[in-house]
Amino acid sequence: MALPRLRCRDYRILDDEQISRVHLAVLEVLEEVGVVVQHEPALRIFAENGCRVDFKARRVWISEHVLKKALAAAPSHFTFFGLRPEFDVHVDTTAIYTIGGSSALFVLDLDGNRRPATMQDLEDLTRLQDALPNLHIMHGIVNPQDIPQDGFDRRLFAVVFKNTARNYYSQGTGGASIRDQIELASILLGSTDAVRQRPPFTIVVCLTSPLVQVGLRVEEILACAEEGIPLYVEVDAQMGATTPITIAGTLVEECANVLCGIMLAQLIRPGLPCIFAIASGVMDMTTGAYSGADPRANLLHVATAQMARFYNLPFQGCTGIDALVSDVQAGYERGMQVLANALAGVNFIHLSVGLMEQMLTAGYEQCVIDNEILDAAFVMARGIEVNDETLAVDVIKEVGPGGNFLGHPHTALHLRKNCWFPKLTVRQRYEVWKAGGGLDMRQRANREARRILKEHHPTYVDDKTKAELDRLASAQQQAYIEKQR
Protein backbone atom coordinates (compact mmCIF):
# COMPACT_ATOMS: atom_id res chain seq x y z
CA MET A 1 0.00 0.00 0.00
CA ALA A 2 1.35 3.45 -0.94
CA LEU A 3 2.35 5.84 1.81
CA PRO A 4 -0.51 8.16 2.84
CA ARG A 5 -0.26 11.76 1.66
CA LEU A 6 -0.99 14.80 3.79
CA ARG A 7 -1.31 18.35 2.49
CA CYS A 8 -0.36 21.54 4.30
CA ARG A 9 -2.91 23.86 5.96
CA ASP A 10 -0.96 27.07 5.22
CA TYR A 11 -0.23 28.35 8.73
CA ARG A 12 1.58 31.62 7.96
CA ILE A 13 3.46 34.08 10.15
CA LEU A 14 4.93 36.18 7.32
CA ASP A 15 2.77 38.29 5.03
CA ASP A 16 3.74 38.92 1.40
CA GLU A 17 5.49 42.20 2.17
CA GLN A 18 7.60 40.57 4.87
CA ILE A 19 8.57 37.72 2.54
CA SER A 20 9.64 40.27 -0.05
CA ARG A 21 11.76 42.15 2.51
CA VAL A 22 13.48 38.95 3.63
CA HIS A 23 14.20 38.04 0.01
CA LEU A 24 15.71 41.47 -0.74
CA ALA A 25 17.89 41.14 2.35
CA VAL A 26 19.05 37.69 1.15
CA LEU A 27 20.03 39.15 -2.21
CA GLU A 28 21.93 41.96 -0.49
CA VAL A 29 23.89 39.50 1.66
CA LEU A 30 24.75 37.27 -1.31
CA GLU A 31 25.84 40.24 -3.45
CA GLU A 32 27.68 42.29 -0.80
CA VAL A 33 28.80 39.85 1.93
CA GLY A 34 29.14 36.63 -0.03
CA VAL A 35 29.75 33.05 1.13
CA VAL A 36 33.05 31.35 1.98
CA VAL A 37 33.36 28.15 -0.10
CA GLN A 38 36.41 26.13 0.97
CA HIS A 39 36.80 24.11 -2.21
CA GLU A 40 38.75 25.38 -5.24
CA PRO A 41 36.99 23.32 -7.97
CA ALA A 42 33.66 24.65 -6.68
CA LEU A 43 35.02 28.20 -6.73
CA ARG A 44 35.94 27.71 -10.39
CA ILE A 45 32.41 26.52 -11.14
CA PHE A 46 30.97 29.66 -9.55
CA ALA A 47 33.40 31.86 -11.48
CA GLU A 48 32.64 30.16 -14.79
CA ASN A 49 28.95 30.85 -14.24
CA GLY A 50 29.18 34.59 -13.69
CA CYS A 51 29.91 34.92 -9.96
CA ARG A 52 32.58 37.18 -8.54
CA VAL A 53 35.16 34.99 -6.78
CA ASP A 54 38.17 35.78 -4.59
CA PHE A 55 40.18 32.56 -4.84
CA LYS A 56 42.66 33.60 -2.16
CA ALA A 57 39.91 34.36 0.39
CA ARG A 58 37.80 31.49 -1.00
CA ARG A 59 34.80 33.79 -1.18
CA VAL A 60 31.92 33.92 -3.64
CA TRP A 61 29.55 36.81 -4.32
CA ILE A 62 26.33 35.92 -6.14
CA SER A 63 24.19 38.31 -8.16
CA GLU A 64 20.41 38.10 -8.36
CA HIS A 65 20.52 37.23 -12.05
CA VAL A 66 22.90 34.27 -11.59
CA LEU A 67 20.99 32.99 -8.56
CA LYS A 68 17.63 33.19 -10.31
CA LYS A 69 18.91 31.37 -13.38
CA ALA A 70 20.40 28.52 -11.33
CA LEU A 71 17.39 28.09 -9.05
CA ALA A 72 15.08 27.92 -12.08
CA ALA A 73 16.58 24.50 -12.79
CA ALA A 74 15.78 23.11 -9.32
CA PRO A 75 12.68 20.89 -9.48
CA SER A 76 9.76 21.40 -7.11
CA HIS A 77 8.33 17.89 -7.48
CA PHE A 78 10.03 14.51 -7.80
CA THR A 79 10.11 11.08 -6.12
CA PHE A 80 12.30 9.72 -3.35
CA PHE A 81 12.40 5.98 -3.89
CA GLY A 82 12.06 3.16 -1.39
CA LEU A 83 13.43 -0.33 -1.90
CA ARG A 84 9.83 -1.20 -2.74
CA PRO A 85 7.42 1.06 -4.66
CA GLU A 86 4.95 1.16 -1.76
CA PHE A 87 7.56 3.16 0.18
CA ASP A 88 8.11 5.76 -2.56
CA VAL A 89 7.74 9.35 -1.34
CA HIS A 90 6.17 11.71 -3.89
CA VAL A 91 7.61 15.13 -3.15
CA ASP A 92 6.18 18.53 -3.97
CA THR A 93 5.87 21.83 -2.10
CA THR A 94 2.59 20.88 -0.38
CA ALA A 95 2.95 17.21 0.63
CA ILE A 96 4.00 16.43 4.23
CA TYR A 97 6.19 13.53 5.31
CA THR A 98 8.28 12.62 8.35
CA ILE A 99 11.94 11.69 8.85
CA GLY A 100 13.17 9.58 11.76
CA GLY A 101 15.66 10.39 14.47
CA SER A 102 19.34 11.04 13.76
CA SER A 103 22.84 10.46 15.07
CA ALA A 104 22.28 10.16 18.83
CA LEU A 105 25.33 9.04 20.79
CA PHE A 106 23.33 7.59 23.69
CA VAL A 107 20.17 5.56 24.15
CA LEU A 108 17.57 5.43 26.89
CA ASP A 109 16.81 1.73 26.77
CA LEU A 110 13.74 -0.23 27.81
CA ASP A 111 15.26 -0.97 31.22
CA GLY A 112 15.60 2.75 31.95
CA ASN A 113 19.37 2.94 31.41
CA ARG A 114 21.04 5.82 29.58
CA ARG A 115 24.17 4.39 27.97
CA PRO A 116 26.33 4.72 24.83
CA ALA A 117 24.56 3.57 21.66
CA THR A 118 25.64 0.28 20.08
CA MET A 119 25.24 -1.42 16.71
CA GLN A 120 22.53 -3.58 18.28
CA ASP A 121 20.64 -0.42 19.24
CA LEU A 122 20.84 0.79 15.63
CA GLU A 123 19.41 -2.55 14.48
CA ASP A 124 16.64 -2.55 17.06
CA LEU A 125 15.69 1.11 16.83
CA THR A 126 15.57 0.96 13.02
CA ARG A 127 13.37 -2.11 13.25
CA LEU A 128 11.17 -0.38 15.83
CA GLN A 129 10.75 2.73 13.68
CA ASP A 130 10.05 0.58 10.62
CA ALA A 131 6.87 -0.62 12.33
CA LEU A 132 5.58 2.93 12.99
CA PRO A 133 2.95 3.98 10.44
CA ASN A 134 3.69 7.71 10.77
CA LEU A 135 7.36 7.42 9.79
CA HIS A 136 8.01 7.84 6.08
CA ILE A 137 11.79 8.25 5.68
CA MET A 138 14.42 6.43 7.74
CA HIS A 139 17.52 7.99 9.27
CA GLY A 140 20.37 6.45 11.24
CA ILE A 141 18.86 7.22 14.63
CA VAL A 142 22.11 6.52 16.51
CA ASN A 143 25.80 6.65 15.73
CA PRO A 144 26.98 3.46 17.45
CA GLN A 145 29.90 3.99 19.81
CA ASP A 146 31.12 0.38 19.70
CA ILE A 147 32.63 0.72 16.19
CA PRO A 148 35.38 2.98 14.82
CA GLN A 149 33.93 6.41 14.08
CA ASP A 150 35.94 7.04 10.90
CA GLY A 151 33.86 5.91 7.95
CA PHE A 152 30.90 5.05 10.19
CA ASP A 153 28.43 6.05 7.47
CA ARG A 154 29.15 2.88 5.46
CA ARG A 155 28.31 0.66 8.42
CA LEU A 156 25.12 2.61 9.16
CA PHE A 157 24.03 2.22 5.54
CA ALA A 158 24.28 -1.58 5.74
CA VAL A 159 22.49 -1.87 9.08
CA VAL A 160 19.64 0.44 8.16
CA PHE A 161 18.87 -1.31 4.88
CA LYS A 162 18.78 -4.69 6.60
CA ASN A 163 15.86 -3.40 8.65
CA THR A 164 13.79 -1.10 6.44
CA ALA A 165 12.66 -0.63 2.84
CA ARG A 166 11.97 3.08 3.33
CA ASN A 167 14.03 5.74 1.60
CA TYR A 168 17.16 6.31 3.67
CA TYR A 169 18.23 9.82 4.70
CA SER A 170 21.96 9.21 4.81
CA GLN A 171 25.02 11.32 5.48
CA GLY A 172 28.56 11.26 4.18
CA THR A 173 32.17 11.78 5.14
CA GLY A 174 33.37 13.31 1.88
CA GLY A 175 32.89 12.65 -1.80
CA ALA A 176 34.27 9.09 -1.74
CA SER A 177 31.61 8.20 0.82
CA ILE A 178 28.85 8.96 -1.69
CA ARG A 179 30.35 6.58 -4.22
CA ASP A 180 30.79 3.90 -1.57
CA GLN A 181 27.13 4.18 -0.67
CA ILE A 182 26.16 3.85 -4.33
CA GLU A 183 28.21 0.63 -4.42
CA LEU A 184 26.40 -0.63 -1.33
CA ALA A 185 23.02 0.26 -2.85
CA SER A 186 23.96 -1.67 -6.00
CA ILE A 187 23.98 -4.85 -3.90
CA LEU A 188 20.35 -4.15 -3.09
CA LEU A 189 19.24 -3.16 -6.59
CA GLY A 190 21.53 -5.27 -8.76
CA SER A 191 23.66 -2.60 -10.44
CA THR A 192 24.90 0.97 -10.17
CA ASP A 193 22.73 1.86 -13.17
CA ALA A 194 19.67 0.70 -11.22
CA VAL A 195 20.78 2.85 -8.27
CA ARG A 196 21.03 5.93 -10.49
CA GLN A 197 17.55 5.25 -11.88
CA ARG A 198 15.93 4.69 -8.47
CA PRO A 199 18.33 5.80 -5.72
CA PRO A 200 16.94 4.41 -2.44
CA PHE A 201 18.88 6.95 -0.39
CA THR A 202 19.50 10.68 -0.19
CA ILE A 203 22.36 12.65 1.34
CA VAL A 204 22.16 15.50 3.82
CA VAL A 205 24.89 18.13 3.60
CA CYS A 206 25.16 20.34 6.69
CA LEU A 207 26.62 23.77 5.96
CA THR A 208 28.14 26.03 8.59
CA SER A 209 26.66 29.27 9.86
CA PRO A 210 27.39 32.04 9.32
CA LEU A 211 27.94 31.73 5.57
CA VAL A 212 30.64 29.05 5.38
CA GLN A 213 30.69 25.90 3.26
CA VAL A 214 33.55 23.67 4.39
CA GLY A 215 35.45 21.60 1.86
CA LEU A 216 34.23 18.18 2.96
CA ARG A 217 30.58 19.21 2.62
CA VAL A 218 31.19 20.83 -0.77
CA GLU A 219 32.84 17.58 -1.89
CA GLU A 220 29.60 15.80 -1.04
CA ILE A 221 27.51 18.32 -3.00
CA LEU A 222 29.72 17.81 -6.04
CA ALA A 223 29.68 14.01 -5.73
CA CYS A 224 25.89 13.88 -5.37
CA ALA A 225 25.43 16.19 -8.33
CA GLU A 226 27.80 14.13 -10.47
CA GLU A 227 26.15 10.84 -9.50
CA GLY A 228 22.52 12.04 -9.44
CA ILE A 229 21.90 11.42 -5.73
CA PRO A 230 19.25 13.77 -4.25
CA LEU A 231 20.39 16.29 -1.64
CA TYR A 232 19.11 17.92 1.50
CA VAL A 233 21.11 21.16 1.74
CA GLU A 234 20.90 22.02 5.43
CA VAL A 235 21.90 24.81 7.79
CA ASP A 236 21.73 24.27 11.54
CA ALA A 237 21.65 27.83 12.81
CA GLN A 238 21.76 28.87 16.46
CA MET A 239 19.99 32.18 16.90
CA GLY A 240 22.08 34.58 18.96
CA ALA A 241 25.31 32.65 18.37
CA THR A 242 25.94 31.58 14.76
CA THR A 243 23.18 33.79 13.35
CA PRO A 244 21.50 37.02 14.51
CA ILE A 245 19.36 36.74 17.62
CA THR A 246 16.31 37.87 15.66
CA ILE A 247 14.25 35.36 13.72
CA ALA A 248 14.24 37.63 10.66
CA GLY A 249 18.03 37.96 10.71
CA THR A 250 18.46 34.19 11.02
CA LEU A 251 16.08 33.72 8.10
CA VAL A 252 18.34 35.87 5.96
CA GLU A 253 21.50 33.91 6.82
CA GLU A 254 19.78 30.54 6.36
CA CYS A 255 18.38 31.45 2.96
CA ALA A 256 21.66 32.90 1.68
CA ASN A 257 23.70 29.89 2.82
CA VAL A 258 21.29 27.18 1.67
CA LEU A 259 20.52 28.84 -1.67
CA CYS A 260 24.25 29.08 -2.40
CA GLY A 261 24.57 25.31 -1.83
CA ILE A 262 21.54 24.44 -3.95
CA MET A 263 22.79 26.79 -6.66
CA LEU A 264 26.12 24.92 -6.80
CA ALA A 265 24.34 21.59 -7.22
CA GLN A 266 22.20 22.99 -10.04
CA LEU A 267 25.22 24.46 -11.83
CA ILE A 268 26.75 20.98 -11.96
CA ARG A 269 23.58 18.98 -12.63
CA PRO A 270 20.51 21.05 -13.54
CA GLY A 271 17.36 19.36 -12.25
CA LEU A 272 18.97 17.50 -9.35
CA PRO A 273 16.36 17.09 -6.59
CA CYS A 274 17.35 19.40 -3.72
CA ILE A 275 15.59 20.06 -0.44
CA PHE A 276 15.92 23.41 1.35
CA ALA A 277 16.68 22.14 4.86
CA ILE A 278 17.23 23.45 8.38
CA ALA A 279 17.45 21.95 11.85
CA SER A 280 17.91 25.23 13.65
CA GLY A 281 17.37 26.43 17.20
CA VAL A 282 18.31 29.16 19.63
CA MET A 283 21.05 29.77 22.16
CA ASP A 284 19.67 29.72 25.69
CA MET A 285 21.16 32.96 26.98
CA THR A 286 21.00 31.75 30.59
CA THR A 287 23.05 28.58 30.03
CA GLY A 288 24.70 28.94 26.61
CA ALA A 289 23.08 25.66 25.58
CA TYR A 290 21.37 24.97 22.26
CA SER A 291 17.59 24.67 22.36
CA GLY A 292 15.46 23.33 19.53
CA ALA A 293 12.23 23.20 21.52
CA ASP A 294 12.13 26.91 22.34
CA PRO A 295 8.91 28.33 20.82
CA ARG A 296 11.00 30.82 18.84
CA ALA A 297 12.62 27.88 17.08
CA ASN A 298 9.16 26.72 16.01
CA LEU A 299 8.45 30.19 14.64
CA LEU A 300 11.75 30.10 12.75
CA HIS A 301 10.85 26.81 11.07
CA VAL A 302 7.38 28.05 10.12
CA ALA A 303 8.84 31.23 8.62
CA THR A 304 11.56 29.31 6.77
CA ALA A 305 8.91 27.03 5.27
CA GLN A 306 7.30 30.13 3.79
CA MET A 307 10.61 31.31 2.34
CA ALA A 308 11.31 27.88 0.81
CA ARG A 309 7.89 27.97 -0.87
CA PHE A 310 8.70 31.47 -2.14
CA TYR A 311 11.73 29.94 -3.88
CA ASN A 312 9.55 27.02 -5.06
CA LEU A 313 11.68 24.48 -3.20
CA PRO A 314 10.51 21.58 -1.00
CA PHE A 315 11.46 22.19 2.63
CA GLN A 316 12.76 20.12 5.54
CA GLY A 317 12.27 21.58 9.02
CA CYS A 318 11.98 20.62 12.71
CA THR A 319 14.74 19.69 15.15
CA GLY A 320 15.38 18.02 18.49
CA ILE A 321 13.61 18.52 21.80
CA ASP A 322 15.26 19.53 25.09
CA ALA A 323 13.63 16.97 27.42
CA LEU A 324 15.99 14.41 28.94
CA VAL A 325 13.48 11.59 29.45
CA SER A 326 10.05 10.62 28.13
CA ASP A 327 8.09 12.88 30.46
CA VAL A 328 5.53 15.69 30.25
CA GLN A 329 8.18 18.06 28.92
CA ALA A 330 9.02 15.67 26.09
CA GLY A 331 5.34 15.38 25.21
CA TYR A 332 4.55 19.08 25.06
CA GLU A 333 7.78 19.95 23.25
CA ARG A 334 7.30 17.33 20.56
CA GLY A 335 3.59 18.11 20.26
CA MET A 336 4.17 21.83 19.73
CA GLN A 337 6.96 21.14 17.25
CA VAL A 338 5.22 18.68 14.99
CA LEU A 339 1.87 20.48 15.04
CA ALA A 340 3.43 23.83 14.12
CA ASN A 341 5.46 22.20 11.35
CA ALA A 342 2.53 20.20 9.98
CA LEU A 343 0.19 23.19 9.94
CA ALA A 344 2.90 25.28 8.25
CA GLY A 345 3.29 22.74 5.48
CA VAL A 346 6.84 21.64 6.28
CA ASN A 347 7.35 19.00 3.61
CA PHE A 348 9.72 16.87 5.68
CA ILE A 349 9.26 17.00 9.45
CA HIS A 350 12.79 16.12 10.48
CA LEU A 351 14.00 14.37 13.65
CA SER A 352 10.39 13.65 14.45
CA VAL A 353 10.80 10.29 16.19
CA GLY A 354 12.71 9.17 19.26
CA LEU A 355 15.24 11.91 19.99
CA MET A 356 15.71 13.78 23.28
CA GLU A 357 18.42 15.86 24.94
CA GLN A 358 18.92 17.84 21.73
CA MET A 359 19.68 14.78 19.62
CA LEU A 360 22.19 13.29 22.08
CA THR A 361 19.84 10.54 23.27
CA ALA A 362 17.46 8.21 21.42
CA GLY A 363 14.67 6.65 23.47
CA TYR A 364 12.90 3.40 22.66
CA GLU A 365 9.78 4.51 24.51
CA GLN A 366 9.94 7.97 22.94
CA CYS A 367 9.82 6.47 19.45
CA VAL A 368 6.42 4.95 20.19
CA ILE A 369 5.13 8.05 22.00
CA ASP A 370 6.22 10.30 19.11
CA ASN A 371 4.32 8.13 16.64
CA GLU A 372 1.16 8.78 18.66
CA ILE A 373 1.87 12.53 18.83
CA LEU A 374 2.40 12.61 15.07
CA ASP A 375 -0.87 10.76 14.56
CA ALA A 376 -2.79 13.34 16.61
CA ALA A 377 -1.03 16.28 14.94
CA PHE A 378 -1.86 14.92 11.50
CA VAL A 379 -5.55 14.67 12.40
CA MET A 380 -5.49 18.41 13.12
CA ALA A 381 -3.39 19.21 10.06
CA ARG A 382 -5.86 17.45 7.76
CA GLY A 383 -8.66 19.75 8.85
CA ILE A 384 -12.28 18.87 8.14
CA GLU A 385 -14.31 17.96 5.09
CA VAL A 386 -17.40 20.06 4.38
CA ASN A 387 -19.98 18.75 1.89
CA ASP A 388 -23.61 17.65 1.88
CA GLU A 389 -22.72 14.26 3.37
CA THR A 390 -20.64 15.65 6.26
CA LEU A 391 -23.02 18.54 6.99
CA ALA A 392 -25.59 15.81 7.61
CA VAL A 393 -28.63 18.07 7.53
CA ASP A 394 -30.87 15.18 6.38
CA VAL A 395 -29.59 13.07 9.27
CA ILE A 396 -30.30 15.86 11.77
CA LYS A 397 -33.83 16.12 10.38
CA GLU A 398 -34.38 12.37 10.71
CA VAL A 399 -33.12 12.15 14.28
CA GLY A 400 -34.75 15.39 15.37
CA PRO A 401 -34.58 17.26 18.68
CA GLY A 402 -33.73 15.05 21.67
CA GLY A 403 -32.78 12.08 19.46
CA ASN A 404 -29.65 9.92 19.41
CA PHE A 405 -27.20 9.57 16.53
CA LEU A 406 -25.38 6.50 17.82
CA GLY A 407 -27.68 3.99 16.09
CA HIS A 408 -28.10 5.93 12.84
CA PRO A 409 -26.50 4.36 9.71
CA HIS A 410 -24.70 7.64 9.02
CA THR A 411 -22.64 7.13 12.18
CA ALA A 412 -21.55 3.62 11.23
CA LEU A 413 -20.81 4.73 7.67
CA HIS A 414 -18.47 7.53 8.75
CA LEU A 415 -17.10 6.03 11.95
CA ARG A 416 -13.60 5.08 10.86
CA LYS A 417 -12.99 8.18 8.78
CA ASN A 418 -14.18 10.62 11.43
CA CYS A 419 -12.83 9.11 14.63
CA TRP A 420 -9.29 8.98 16.00
CA PHE A 421 -8.28 5.67 17.56
CA PRO A 422 -5.14 6.20 19.67
CA LYS A 423 -2.97 3.26 20.73
CA LEU A 424 -1.36 4.67 23.87
CA THR A 425 -3.68 7.44 25.03
CA VAL A 426 -5.96 6.53 27.96
CA ARG A 427 -9.64 7.56 27.96
CA GLN A 428 -10.87 5.37 30.79
CA ARG A 429 -12.20 6.34 34.17
CA TYR A 430 -9.60 6.31 36.94
CA GLU A 431 -10.97 3.16 38.56
CA VAL A 432 -10.88 1.19 35.31
CA TRP A 433 -7.36 2.43 34.48
CA LYS A 434 -6.13 1.52 37.96
CA ALA A 435 -7.68 -1.93 37.81
CA GLY A 436 -5.87 -2.52 34.50
CA GLY A 437 -2.49 -1.88 36.09
CA GLY A 438 -2.43 1.91 36.31
CA LEU A 439 0.35 2.27 33.73
CA ASP A 440 1.43 5.79 32.78
CA MET A 441 2.21 6.81 29.20
CA ARG A 442 5.88 5.90 29.44
CA GLN A 443 5.07 2.46 30.83
CA ARG A 444 2.49 1.84 28.12
CA ALA A 445 5.03 2.89 25.49
CA ASN A 446 7.58 0.54 27.02
CA ARG A 447 5.15 -2.35 26.71
CA GLU A 448 4.31 -1.45 23.10
CA ALA A 449 7.97 -1.07 22.11
CA ARG A 450 8.75 -4.49 23.58
CA ARG A 451 5.83 -6.01 21.64
CA ILE A 452 7.02 -4.49 18.36
CA LEU A 453 10.60 -5.64 18.84
CA LYS A 454 9.38 -9.15 19.61
CA GLU A 455 7.05 -9.37 16.62
CA HIS A 456 8.45 -7.11 13.87
CA HIS A 457 11.31 -8.78 12.00
CA PRO A 458 11.28 -7.33 8.46
CA THR A 459 12.58 -9.46 5.58
CA TYR A 460 13.05 -6.86 2.85
CA VAL A 461 16.38 -8.41 1.81
CA ASP A 462 17.55 -12.03 2.07
CA ASP A 463 20.28 -13.30 4.37
CA LYS A 464 22.86 -13.57 1.58
CA THR A 465 22.35 -9.91 0.65
CA LYS A 466 22.56 -8.87 4.28
CA ALA A 467 25.87 -10.68 4.67
CA GLU A 468 27.26 -9.06 1.52
CA LEU A 469 26.17 -5.61 2.73
CA ASP A 470 27.99 -6.17 6.02
CA ARG A 471 31.11 -7.49 4.30
CA LEU A 472 31.37 -4.60 1.84
CA ALA A 473 30.54 -1.92 4.44
CA SER A 474 33.24 -3.23 6.78
CA ALA A 475 35.77 -3.34 3.94
CA GLN A 476 34.89 0.19 2.87
CA GLN A 477 35.24 1.49 6.41
CA GLN A 478 38.62 -0.19 6.85
CA ALA A 479 39.85 1.26 3.55
CA TYR A 480 38.73 4.72 4.67
CA ILE A 481 40.49 4.33 8.04
CA GLU A 482 43.74 3.25 6.39
CA LYS A 483 43.57 6.19 3.99
CA GLN A 484 43.30 8.62 6.92
CA ARG A 485 46.53 7.34 8.50
What does this molecule look like?
By secondary structure, the protein is of the alpha/beta class. It has 2 domains: 6-14 and 71-382, Trimethylamine methyltransferase-like (TIM Barrel, Alpha-Beta Barrel), CATH 3.20.20; 388-418, no CATH class. Helix content is 47%, strand content 14%. The chain has 18 helices and 22 strands. The strands form 5 sheets. Strands 1-7-20-19-16-14-12-11-10 form a 9-stranded mixed beta sheet. Strands 3-4-2-13 form a 4-stranded mixed beta sheet. Strands 9-8-22-21 form a 4-stranded mixed beta sheet. Helix 12 crosses helix 17.
Layout of secondary structure:
Elements: E1 6-7, H1 16-32, E2 35-37, H2 40-48, E3 52-54, E4 59-61, H3 64-71, E5 78-80, E6 89-91, E7 95-98, E8 106-108, E9 114-116, H4 119-130, E10 138-139, H5 152-161, E11 168-171, H6 175-189, H7 192-197, E12 201-207, E13 212-213, H8 215-227, E14 231-235, E15 238-239, H9 247-268, E16 274-278, E17 281-283, E18 290-291, H10 295-310, E19 315-317, H11 328-343, E20 348-349, E21 355-356, E22 361-363, H12 364-382, H13 388-391, H14 393-399, H15 409-418, H16 430-435, H17 441-455, H18 463-484
Parallel strand pairs: 2-13, 7-20, 8-22, 10-11, 11-12, 12-14, 14-16, 15-17, 16-19, 19-20
Antiparallel strand pairs: 1-7, 2-4, 3-4, 5-6, 8-9, 17-18, 21-22
Helix pairs in contact: 1-9, 5-6, 5-18, 6-8, 6-18, 8-9, 9-10, 10-11, 11-12, 12-17
